[in-house]
Amino acid sequence: MSSQTNIDICASTEIEEGGKGKRFPVTVRGDDTSGFVVRYGGQVYGYLNRCAHVPVELDWFEGEFFESSGLYLMCATHGAVYAPDTGKCEGGPCTGAHLRKIMTVERDGRIYWRPDELVKAAEA
Ligand code: FES
């Protein structure tokens, strides 16, 4: 599959500004895992669903990535907080580290992601 392939995730209306995000299946070095998209400042941001501290998924409940203020993404395990637009850890055990970004495209009311050299499409 080419790196320019856009893979459909969901309708634009399914993710809320500073609120519920959406997970999608990916593979990384042959392991099935997930990515996620969130909306912040009107923009869509995509990341690998893997904390920069210990490689666990971030969401405490499926699709719940933001902490209560809606300003930071938070890891459910030890509470690391990440800036939604840069993926940089702004507080917690991995301060200064980054979430792995995934390229996203929003077009005609749908959100898509693009596989890259690390994050690949999950097998159907
Ligand atoms: S695993 Fe995310 S903060 Fe420790």
TrEMBL record:
Keywords: 2Fe-2S, Iron, Iron-sulfur, Metal-binding. It comes from the Bacteria. The keyword Cell cycle does not apply. Residues 7-113 form the Rieske domain. Coiled coil: none annotated. This is Rieske (2Fe-2S) protein.
